[in-house]
Amino acid sequence: MKVISIAIQKGGSGKTTTAVNLAAALRDAEKKVLLIDFDPQSNLTQSLGIKKEPAANVYTVLRKEAFGEQADLLEVKQVLHGLDLIPAALELADAELELASVYGREQIAAQLLQRLENAYDYVFIDCPPSFGILTVNALVASDYYLMPLQAEFLPLNGVRSFERHLERIKKLNKHLRLLGFVLTKFNNRLSMNRSVEEQLLEKYDATQVFRTHIRTNIKLAAAQEQGMDIFSFDPYSNGAADYKALAAEFLEKIK
Q: Are the CB atoms for 141 and 134 separated by under 8 Å?
């Protein structure tokens, strides 16, 4: 079982869209996938059709584990469109304060995931766009982190800010590795988009920048609005083609 955090310190970069649709493409490739929503804004949860805050969610499990109960992630699992989801709720924002004084607070998610005993091929954690205790927990529990970013200059600053924090995380999780950058809302005709890709390729190994670009596609936003992944919403769209290609490249990299 491989655990992958989808993270970057910048909202609107395509984290949730990538989490949902990469997981759905792997589902269609007959892989067993679990999605975990670690963002108090609950965008991943809502993107899969849960509009009301679930009483049982990732916060209730984290809190149980932190305060001495042996919690089970799967006790709050929901299955939507063939995807297993551990949903979030707004109360997850309280975790930053409530877990601040807990001994070993950075390891809570890692302890929970160890109990899944290889029940899944891949676990994706959708992180908040900030570097607090939730993102730290996700990264400490992960084998890899994947960074979607819009191909513009401001999201590049989010990458630089994220990297400044990583050294501390790598002291807690020496096995954590960058799986790669995924450029989203990409238009090859725009010089800015091409320039951002060139900057990434200059700074990082070419194997750390996914060849697959996620093109600008209104169908991706429409699918989220309907609480569906792109393959369930419109399997013939550019968005579906791009995420299918991304899943193939993901499998090639991660093996």
A: no
